[in-house]
Amino acid sequence: MHRWQWQSWQGLPYLTCSLLQDWSHGFFTQQFRLHAPEDLAQVLRPSAQVYRVKQVHGNTVLSASQIASEAASVGELSFPEADGILTENTAQAVWVCTADCTPVLIADTQTGQVAAVHAGWRGTATEIVPRAIDRLQEQGSQLKNLLVALGPAITGEVYQVSEAVAAQIGSTVVPQPSESQVALPEEAPVLEALRQLPDSPLLPDSLPGHARIDVRRVIALQLAKMGLDEAQVSIAPYCTYQNPEYFFSYRRERQKKVQWSGIVSA
Hints:
globular; six-stranded mixed β-sheet; alpha+beta; 15 strands; 8 helices; single chain
């Protein structure tokens, strides 16, 4: 069982995962709200070069060199649009911010390279985490050497969405409807297939036309579909919506406040 441990920096709490113990990393809490990634790098590794992007709920993944090239062409204060970042050299710190979406940190035990991904429901529906892993494989990573930590995010029991959204997310991990099912409502076959899964990410909701879905569980299923073993993946036992003492939640507060998560390449 992977351990999620509370750490402290100047009296402020943040989380680490034992799965990533060989990399400087952290899932930071709302207590760090006044600190930008450039500040937070001092917590992990002061000498690291910081990389971040303008998150747009898509599935674009950029490398550190692509981000640097963009900054050189349009100015350092402008960040390219993407939702995933991967490193190429040592001492590169990659960062994403979240406030209910899933912060995903990925590390390669052989190359030392890492990635950070912002996985909201839209990014998950377009498989941004598998896409980040594909990019790492293009750089020489092998699936067997990857470790993935899914940080604090909103849990399925409190994440209400429309059935159409649930089906859009879930369609990435269940077979597509057959021709014999076309007479059913578009999302019905997908939702039924999701319900049949062991430890299903789909939960019932009392409001007609709605469901509750665990996005982190869907991401874990996407990773299993790619071939990652269960032991290579860890999910934080914290919900941003249900733990207001530590985390901002857009669903709870309807305010654009975020917490940062980052990891440094070895």
